[in-house]
Design goal:
This is Paraoxonase. The chain has 355 residues and is mainly beta. Helices cover 12% and strands 44% of the residues.
Length: 355
Amino acid sequence: MAKLIVLTLLGMGLALFKNHQFSYQTRLNALREVQPIELPNCNLVKGIETGSEDLEILPNGLAFISSGLQYPGIKSFNPNNPGKILLMDLNEEDPTVLELGITGSKFDLSSFNPHGISTFTDEDNAVYLLVVNHPDAKSTVELFKFQEEEKSLLHLKTIRHKLLPNLNDIVAVGPEHFYATNDHYFLDPYLRSWEMYLGLAWSYVVYYSPSEVRVVAEGLDFANGINISPDGKYVYVAELLAHKIHVYEKHANWTLTPLKSLDFNTLVDNISVDPETGDLWVGCHPNGMKVFFYDSENPPASEVLQIQNILTEEPKVTQVYAENGTVLQGSTVASVYKGKLLIGTVFHKALYCEL
């Protein structure tokens, strides 16, 4: 009788393992290969070799780029050096990048590990850059003021909070006010790995202000990119391992109400919003297995989607760019400026194309 119980439990455990293994592979889109879609006149951006995980383009064409991310379980081509923020002027004929100097006596450059970024411009046209940072595998938000003439960032403040434990991306709604995604619930690396493998969908979105911090959306399977509509009425959240983008209505008290969701056959990462048209531009991973289990002989592909009229009953989704990893590996973000497309990656290069 005891042997029968043991065998039954073993059988149930094996069935459960196989079920989760299938689910895990499905969530990572492990079998997908891309058919290339090329754009005219694409060039790799000089000076970016170790990632361009997130980027933000100002209305004047200056682009901030976070580079050098070191994230648990993800490949890094420069694991022993801190990350940096790069500046690129998209008005130039052949734009290159410049590393922005960082000033501020209390900021530790040696542990700088930038992830998602967002800008906020105040009434006096001062530009603030908010950066998700992972110093020593922790999560903070670093607040900088952009000093354009000096081509530098002045560090103003480090933000920490118990509801910001596993930050991924951020969208600023004020100099010290933002929505942010936590891509995991657990802090412990072992528990994080099981959380992801089992698909617990416990990640969430937080609203932060100096006077109030609260969870505003939850139940997400690896909450990732986040952005806001040009009119400030809607917040967009990418749910990486569910292959979804969620649209939330934003209220005057900063709470969010789910409005709709869109499904995709790809892992949606960072979301950029065209300030003129309201279109969403999304950097995607066609096959997440190749990102989390890197093989230089079979590298992760890149894909860019454009979503038009997302608030209507029939949004238009266009696959604008797709490449199998021979040129660009692991795309995470894409943004447009005056007919040009800038594509960033989690640990690889960056590409600049004409549309």
